[in-house]
C-alpha cells in the first residue's frame, strides 16, 4: 500500500480521535466541577480500575498492554487538568525576598580555603564565615541561629551527587535560596620538604578522592576519607608522617604546604555546584529553578506518570536523582529540579497537585545560580 495513502487514513483517524478526546476532556471538566462542589477528591481509584479492565478486555491480544498505557495516560492527563480546575486559585508558597548585599553570617564546611569557602565569595560581597567540620553542623548552625545561611556542595560533574547533602535536605526543614558553580581543580599537597616518592597515603573528602581516582590508582596511593578537603590540608600540616592532601591550591597555601602536583582530577572540566540554604523560603527576583523531593508508590509506571504531570503543566525538568531510603527494602526518594517560579499560576497549581497526590512531598526552594 502507498505510504501517502496510509498517512491520509491516519489523518482521518486522528481527526476523529481529537474530537473524541476533546469531548472526553470536556466531560471530565464537568466531573471536576461536580467534585469541587461536593468536596470529592480528583482521583477515583476504583473508577480507573473499572475503565482499565474494560478497555484491556475489549482490546485485541496484541494491543492489550498498549491499550492499558493509552487509557491510563489519558486519565492521568484528565486528572492533571482537573487539578488545574481544583487549584485555579492556588496560593503561591509564601516567601521573602533574598538579599545577598551587605554583611551576612554563613556556616561553611571545612576551614579557610575550602571549596565551600571559595563558593561563598561567588554569592556574597561581604560575609563572615563560621566554619564547621560536618555537613550536619551546618544545618545545626543555621537552625540554632548561629548563622543566617549555610553553604553545601550538592553535585560534582565527575563524581555525581553529594548524597549526604541530599539526605540532610530531606531530614531538615531548610530551603535552598541560591546556587553557585565552581570550577574545581585539585592539587596534591604535602608538608614542607616531603618528596613525592615518600608519599604512601592521601587524605581528602570522599568527593576529592573520587574526582582524582585515576591519579590515585596510577600512583598506588592508600586513600583516607576526611571530613573536608581543607581540613585534610590542616591535618597534613600537623602530621609527622609523609602524608599528602588532595585539596584546593588555596587551602594548601593557607596551611603552608608544598604543592607537588596540580590539576590531578580525572576530568579537566571539573565543576561542583553548591547550594545556599536558609530557614525561611527566600527567593531572588530572577529565581528560575525549583527543587522538590518526593516519594512514589511501588507501582509500574509511577515515575513515568509523575513526569506526565510536568509535561501537561508545560514545565521543564532539568534534573532527577533518586536515593534509597535507609532501613527500607530499596524504597527510594526522588529529587527533582524544574524551571519555573513559585509565584506563577502553573507552578502554584502543580505544587498543590503534587502535595495532594503524593504520600511524601517536600518543596526545597526556588532559586537561581549566581
Ligand atoms: O470519573 C471520575 O471521577 C473522573 O474524574 C474521570 C476520570 C477519567 O478520566 O475517566 C479521571 C480521574 C479519576 O481518577 C477517574 C476517572
Question: Would you give an account of this structure?
Answer:
32% of the residues are buried. This protein has 12 helices and 17 strands. The radius of gyration is 26 Å and the shape is elongated. It has helices at 3-37, 45-58, 64-86, 115-123, 135-143, 163-171, 206-211, 213-218, 229-238, 249-254, 302-313, 345-357, and strands at 96-97, 103-109, 126-132, 149-156, 160-161, 175-183, 187-190, 201-204, 222-225, 244-247, 258-261, 271-278, 282-283, 289-295, 317-324, 332-339, 360-367. Helix 1 (3-37) packs across helix 3, helix 2 (45-58) runs antiparallel to helix 3 (64-86) and helix 3 packs across helix 11. The mean pLDDT is 95. The strands form 4 sheets. Strands 2, 3, 4, 5, 6 and 12 form a 6-stranded mixed sheet that branches. Strands 9-8-10-7-11 form a 5-stranded mixed sheet. Among the domains are: 1-86, Chorismate mutase (Chorismate Mutase Domain, subunit A), CATH 1.20.59; 96-184 and 270-283, Periplasmic binding protein-like II (D-Maltodextrin-Binding Protein, domain 2), CATH 3.40.190.10; 189-257, D-Maltodextrin-Binding Protein, domain 2, CATH 3.40.190.10. The protein is α/β, with parallel strands linked by helices. Prephenic acid (PRE) binds at residues 28, 31, 43-44, 47-48, 51, 75, 78-79, 82.
